[in-house]
Amino acid sequence: MAITKPAEQAADAGDATLEAMFIPDGSKHGRHHARFAKDKTLLHPVLDHLRGTGNGVVAQGDIAEAAAGWGLTEDDVRAGIRYYERHREIFDAFFLLQDEEWRAWNAE
Fold first, then answer.
1. Nearest to 61 by CA among 81, 41, 40, 84
2. What is the distance between the alpha carbons of residues 61 and 21, in angstroms, rounded to a whole number?
3. Cβ atoms 32, 94 nearer than 8 A
4. SS3 content of the chain, % helix, strand, coil (to 5)
5. Whole-number Å distance between alpha carbons of 6 and 49
6. Among 90, 96, 91, 50, which Cα is nearest to 70's?
7. pLDDT, tens digit, for every residue of 9-40?
8. What are the domain boundaries of the chain?
9. Buried b vs exposed e over 78-97: b needs ≥16 C-beta within 10 Å?
10. C-alpha distances out from residue 82 to 2, 65, 101, Å
């Protein structure tokens, strides 16, 4: 019997396994502030990194680059993408507001 890592389990298992890989921030409310349970890395900056390398599309981002940049495994990043896809509306709203703030700040 093969031993699987949590990210591999998330790729094959249901919502409960995937959700267990992420924890609330603790100081900020909302799924868009989720952290990886294994090391407490915030998820949204990892997803933002993927957006940056994927022409604004998380799922088209460079998984290997994001993993290396944030000290995660590629399986962790893939699990993060799946978590994003499960909660896409709240993440996309967060990114929309974040982008709007950035544009306003740069216009000053």
1. 81
2. 21
3. yes
4. 65, 5, 30
5. 22
6. 50
7. 445 557 788 889 999 988 888 899 999 999 99
8. 26-107
9. bbbbbbbeebeeebeebbee
10. 23, 17, 26
Torsion angle of the four alpha carbons 62, 67, 73, 76, in this order, in degrees rounded to the nearest 10 = -70
Tokens 């390398």 correspond to what residue?
Answer: 53
Instruction: Please state, as a whole number, how many other Cβ atoms lie within 10 Å of the Cβ of residue 33.
Output: 16
pLDDT in tens, 40-77: 999 999 999 999 999 889 999 999 999 999 999 999 99
| Residue 36, beta-bridge partner list | 22
Q: Can you spell out the DSSP letters for 56-100?
A: T-GGGS-HHHHHHHHT--HHHHHHHHHHHHHTHHHHHHHHHHHHH
Residue type, 67: A
Tokens 């949590």 appear where? Answer: 6
Q: How many CA atoms lie within 13 A of 55 on its CB side?
A: 1
